[in-house]
Amino acid sequence: TAKEHGKNRFSCYTREMDEIAHARLRLSTDLRQALVRGQLSLHYQPVVNLKTVTISKAEALLRWHHPNMGNVGPAEFIPLAEEAGLIAEISHWVFCEAVACAKESNQIAGRIVPISINRSPMEFLSDSTGSDWLRYLSEMDMPSSAIIVEITEGLLLHPSPSVKDQLLRFAQSGLLVALDDFGTGYSAMSYLHQFHIDYLKIDQSFIQDINVNLTHQTIVESIILMAHKLGLKVIAEGIETEQQMTFLRQAGCDYGQGFYFSPPIPSTIFQRMLDGNLH
Ligand code: C2E
Ligand code: MG
Ligand code: MG
Ligand code: MG
């Protein structure tokens, strides 16, 4: 009967939820081991200056090679790391790796290529970072402008005093700040001038169909004009075709990243690319 049917579906559903919960628990146990066992790595995606078509900077993106599951993406395991209380440790490791990569770029290419790192809103809950970062940079004999911190719009909408304080300290210490995935959140532009932000990163969802979607063309052109008037540089994310790059260049976009130039790649390959003086 329909009633039994419904019952069965319900019990199936809970068993499935149970399995998902167990899988998550297993995964977070594995994640705890991942750092010490060297299963985490950073890939670097070049960010290209659209006027000169040379590599200007790079974004560090976390990769986890799980022993039996293969590659697990950051969109899946970053939330796990946050729940499991591992995010601070992971993100400290990311920071140190990124500084090392910037330092190596200076040795190889003779110029410091700034590296951007992603920082999720939850990482702003703890107040500890900042001074230890600056200490590490000076130990490594690197300027703070070698690191760009990527944050998301949501953080700025109702910022706590601690968030405001940390962003102010970033600015005062010379760390650069980029607003990631711009346009997908609240986009209440009035908050932009309240914070010291250096780069706007236009979300890839606007770029994907930029050559055919007139609304997205208008939005992107307006973002670029506004950003420039506010003294910010613009980075377009997710450029996959030459046509997209051409549109963005003509619209005056400063920088771009995407599969058209290069996917995220291991540090050794990235350094070799710099040595060859662009792609
Ligand atoms: P995000 O910061 O917006 O990073 C851009 C994402 O777009 C990356 O996905 C990148 O691989 C992908 N991408 C780059 N070019 C293209 C393109 O041309 N086409 C398409 N379709 N995609 C492109 P990924 O590496 O899977 O990272 C996903 C998200 O995970 C990141 O989004 C970021 O929010 C987060 N994440 C990555 N690494 C870290 C980290 O170290 N810490 C924290 N807190 N979050 C991280
Ligand atoms: Mg990012
Ligand atoms: Mg992004
Ligand atoms: Mg994103």
UniProtKB/TrEMBL annotation:
Residues 24-278 form the EAL domain. This is EAL domain-containing protein. It comes from Noviherbaspirillum galbum. The chain holds residues 602 to 880 of 880 of the full protein.
